[in-house]
Amino acid sequence: SERLLEVKNLRTSFFTHVGEVRAIRGVSFYLDKGEAIGIVGESGSGKSVTSMSVMKLLQYPGRIVGGEITFNGKDITNMPEKEMQSIRGNEIAMIFQDPMTSLNPVYTIGNQIMEAIRRHQGLSKRKAREKAIEILKLVGIPSPEKRVDNYPHEFSGGMRQRAMIAMALSCEPNLLIADEPTTALDVTIQAQILELMKNLKEKINTSIILITHDLGVVADVCSRILVMYGGLIMEEGKTEEIFYNPKHPYTMGLLKSIPRLDLGENKRLVPIEGSPPDLLKPPKACPFATRCPYTMKVCEEMMPPYFEAEKNHRSQCWLLHEDAPKIQVDTGVKR
Ligand code: SF4
Ligand code: MG
User: 304 CB under 6 A from ligand 1?
Assistant: First the structure.
C-alpha cells in the first residue's frame, strides 16, 4: 500500500504568557492511502492538536517546533500558507463535532454543497446541483431532490452531520479528518454516521483520521489505533490488538471506561481517576505514572522507550521491559 501521510517526531507548543505548553512532545505515525486510523485519548491528550498541526491550522499562540510532515510525497512542514490552502481545499477535508459551526444558517444545504463543488471542480450551476443531490443521496439523506433546498435548521442533528460529511466529500479528498464527529449525536445516529464513513471510505478510497475520546467509536471504522496521553503516543497497534491484547495501562483504563450496553444505558465501568499532566511542566518520566495502578520506581525516574509487543504493536511503558512483573488485566472487553 502507498503512504499518504507520514509524521516524524512532531512537536507542537503553545507559547502562552505563563510559558511554553508542550502539547505535542514527539509524535510519529503514518497513514496509508485508503486506510482509516483512530487517534484516541482524553481531552488534553494532544489528539486535536496533532491533527491541527498536520493541517497547519494551529491558532496563535500555537506553533510547530520540531519534526517533519510529509503529505502525498511532499514535505509540507514549512510549506507557505498559500500552497497549504490549496492542499487543504483540494486534498484534505475536516469534519467537527458541531456541524452548525461549519454550516451557514442563511444558505440552503444545497447551495453550500454546490459552492464547495464549484470552487473545487469548476462545474456549471446545473451540473453542481446534480452533483449535490447525488452526494446527499450518497450520505443517506432521504428525498435529496427536495432536501437540497432546505436550510440547516430544517435538518435534524444527524442529518446535519451527514450534510457536513457531504460537503467534506464534495471535493473527493484524499484525507478526511473527523474530530469527534459523533460526540453530540445519540447512540443510534452515531452508529449510522460511523457506518456511513466506513462505506464512503470504501467507495471513494478516502483515508480517514478519526479522533475521539471514546475507544468504542473507532472499533468498526479503523484498522489501526493510536492512543495518546500527555502529548505522546502511549500505544499503537491494530484495532483488534488494542481491544483484545492491550499493553499500556492507559489503554486498559480507556477500555474499562467504554460505555457497555450489557450493563445498561450508558453505564461506565471504571473511570480513570486523576487528571492529565500539566504540559507547562511536562513530566520527564512516564506521564501516566501519577494515575497508573502499576507504577514502579523506574516509571517516576525515566521516560519509558517504545517496546514492541509484537510486529506493528508498540507501547511506551516499562511493563514491557523483560524484568518487569507480568500483569493480568481483565478489561471486560469480550471478543
Ligand atoms: Fe504505568 Fe510505569 Fe507503564 Fe507508566 S511506565 S504506564 S507508570 S507501568
Ligand atoms: Mg479535541
Answer: yes
Residue with cell 471478543: 335
Bond preceding residue 305 cis, omega within 30 of 0:
no
Q: How many CA atoms lie within 13 A of 144 on its CB side?
A: 18
> Which ligand sits closest to the CA of 247?
1
Q: Which residue has the cell 471504522?
A: 221
Ligand 1 pocket residue status of 288, Cβ below 6 Å: yes
Entry field: residues in the chain:
335
Q: What is the ipTM of this complex?
A: 0.96
Ligand 2 centroid distance, CA of 97 (Å): 9
Cα–Cα dist 248/250, whole Å: 5
Q: The pTM is what? A: 0.91
Pocket of ligand 1 contains residue 252 by CB under 6 Å: no
pLDDT tens for each residue of 109-162: 999 999 888 877 778 999 999 999 988 988 889 999 999 999 999 999 888 888
